[in-house]
Design brief:
about 400 residues, alpha+beta, FAD/NAD(P)-binding domain, eight-stranded mixed beta sheet, six-stranded mixed beta sheet, about 40% helix, binds 8-demethyl-8-dimethylamino-flavin-adenine-dinucleotide, binds P-hydroxybenzoic acid
Length: about 400
């Protein structure tokens, strides 16, 4: 088998890269080690920045997003006694959209299987080789158990945090990684309950952070800060609802409850690996960086990476010009660090560390953001998404 771009991983990064390349006449093959059902059911991100919505729409993937997605004009910041709305259009002229990553993935897979380039599920032993040469290849075993070789001009490592590509980049280049593990985790639930709020609520509370998000007019997505050692078995539905009611409590407001259909505990970390390239192997998305979810940035960063990467690869493969592939890692990392800082600052402002000095600093910062327009604008610009080149 031969293709121009071999893409490892069918998450949002790999699938969107495939779509953008195909639209510009560059052929490619996507290799995914999980099944289609598994990939489509993985519950993750919920917030799309303006530039993500624009990119998906321009790539012909906006129909269902615009029909079923919910455009949001702000968020609420809450601390005891106060729920303050940050109005994004007023502060920075942009909005965000609530549209689950599951739905983005389904739309991308449907478009791909409907006449797009090959997308092979349930492959195994995926190994990028000879990435320092002009003709790298990917060895893998197909779903039927047959060994295969995919000869490529370029390989894209969009295989998430646990995929094989990052290790290959790190073995060959004098790069480095940075990591921070937070002493917090999120207990996330999906519930058949109509959202009791028009915008997402980010709530500081003496007992820990709470986030009220949603997926549709009938489905809520809720998170509670818990200790990373917490076991989900110890959290009955009643215990979860009691804690949510306490953390979002506000005079005159009531939580709506319903059937919890999914619950899990999610660790939180920041991670950056540089450079995002070795020879003809390019990393994008979670394969190169992880942010804690408090800033809603992970999926959006993956989309920003592949938008830059797609134009760089088109230039390389259709015009033979190397300028954009040579600047890809630096340009992508500038945005990665901006989003890493924003995600860290949101996490630091909102999670209880147990230390009373920290708590006073957090409350002081929350009061500042809720009373100063420049402070609110800084948050709004970062949350709704900065330009591709920061
Ligand atoms: P993915 O989605 O992990 O996809 C990688 C794909 O590669 C496959 N793979 C392999 N394929 C072949 N061979 C191998 N050896 C392979 N190893 C792995 C995997 O099966 C998978 O299909 O990475 P990608 O595409 O870079 O996308 C990144 C996003 O998924 C991630 O950043 C976001 O979900 C993060 N995130 C959020 N991002 C946002 O922008 N907004 C949010 O509101 C938001 N909320 C969240 C989040 C992540 C969360 N969790 C679960 C960590 C909320 C949560 C709770
Ligand atoms: C979500 O809806 O899953 C979500 C929303 C905002 C975040 C993180 C997750 O900051």
């Amino acid at each position: 088998m031969r293709t121009q771009v071999g893409i490892i991983g069918a998450g949002p990064a790999g699938l969107l890269l495939s779509r953008l390349l195909t639209l510009q006449g560059v052929d490619n093959v996507v290799l995914e080690n999980r099944s289609r059902e598994y990939v489509e059911a993985r519950i993750r991100a919920g917030i799309l920045e303006q530039h993500t919505v624009d990119t998906l729409t321009d790539a012909g993937l906006g129909d269902r997003l615009h029909r079923e997605g919910l455009e949001h004009h702000g968020i609420y910041l809450q601390y005891p006694g106060t729920r303050h709305k940050l109005d994004f259009p007023e502060l920075c002229g942009r909005t965000v959209w609530v549209y689950g990553q599951t739905e983005v993935t389904k739309d991308l897979i449907k478009a791909q299987l409907d006449g797009g380039p090959p997308l092979l599920f349930e492959v195994s032993d995926v190994t990028p080789e000879d990435v320092d040469s002009d003709s790298p290849r990917i060895r893998f075993t197909d779903a039927e158990g047959n060994p295969q070789v995919l000869e490529c001009d370029v390989i894209a490592g969009t295989d998430g945090f646990h995929g094989p590509s990052r290790a290959v980049v790190q073995q060959g280049s004098p790069g480095r990684t940075w990591e921070r593990t937070y002493p917090y985790a999120w207990l996330g639930v999906l519930a058949d309950a109509a959202p009791a709020t028009d915008e997402l609520i980010y709530a500081w509370h003496p007992e820990g952070f709470g986030l009220y998000s949603m997926r549709s007019p009938t489905v809520s997505r809720l998170y509670l800060q818990v200790d990373p050692s917490e076991k989900i078995e110890d959290w009955s539905d009643d215990r979860i609802w009691d804690n949510l009611a306490k953390r979002f409590a506000l005079d005159g407001w009531e939580l709506t409850t319903g059937t919890i259909t999914e619950k899990s505990v999610l660790p939180m970390r920041s991670f950056v690996s540089a450079p995002m390239r070795r020879g003809r192997l390019f990393l994008a998305g979670d394969a190169a960086h992880i942010v804690p979810p408090t800033g809603a940035k992970g999926l959006n960063l993956a989309v920003a990476d592949v938008t830059l990467l797609a134009s760089a690869l088109v230039r390389l493969l259709t015009e033979g010009r190397t300028d954009l592939v040579d600047s890809y890692s630096d340009r992508a990392l500038a945005r990665v660090w901006r989003c890493t800082h924003f995600s860290w600052s949101m996490t630091s402002m909102l999670h209880r560390s147990g230390d009373d000095f920290d708590a006073e600093l957090q409350l002081s910062q929350l009061r500042r953001v809720c009373s100063s327009e420049p402070a609110a604008r800084e948050l709004a610009e970062n949350y709704t998404g900065l330009p591709l080149d920061v």
